[in-house]
Structure prediction request, 294 residues.
Amino acid sequence: MAPSASPSAAKSNQVVATIGVDSSPMAATFGAGAVWIADFQNHSVTRIDPAVNGITATIEVDSFPNAATFGAGAVWITKTFSNTVSRIDPATNRVTTSIGVGSIPDSGLRAAAFGAGAVWVSNSSTDTVVRIDPATNSITATIKVGSGPGAGTFGAGAVWIVNSADDTVSRIDPATNSVTATIKAGAKLGAAAFGAGAVWITNTADGTVSRIDPATNRVTTTIKVGAHPIAATFGAYAVWIANSGSGNVSRIDPGTSSVTARIRVGDQPVAATFGADGAWIANTASHTISRIQP
Prediction:
């Protein structure tokens, strides 16, 4: 689908391209100059070139992909029901290895993050986070966290894991592979992002975002956004929150901890990433990707 305007000509806080994808986009990440979209139903990963706002590759994986991150020159995809994480080489658009994580049929793999030279994958079935070494494609640590771990992010030298079943955030020190703080946030936590020296956590039950100060491990501000905020990303000195219940994105200014724009996207936005001077939003119900000009 052709963009409605070129990013350079568009005004801020507008959707400048809408890209049609197959089935149900579930997760998004940016790396190697491309946007990577996990398609849950089609068992595939879609590569989008920001230069043309078009799909350049579709990569098959062996199960239901539900989370994505980028690091160590690779795309990392978690797959529920198969207990595995797939590593994709952007140079070839091929899966180079699959790493076993856990042993439960519905593995509970929910999210992935990259930081401190490692991939961090949460497993809600065992209430753990595993650390994967990209140099060996092997698990080097398994860390007990809160109940129902899901989304994760990296910043301030730590891994931050959202525990949706007990509404807490676990802070993991990569130097010791241990939880150093457990922080109470809002209700039914959804996503995590790091930027402007803070951790940003979405609270899906009441449509808010909690700002956590890593210096104190405390929530310093709670910001009202849209209905059912389920995804978050940081870029262009802003936090971008995908509100799946209201079909829009809230832009938060970290300087004031306030919403400065609300941008209509597709139906049921569930994932967000930032790259190539744009916020990319995966809309699972309308089977589209929205590109927002900051």
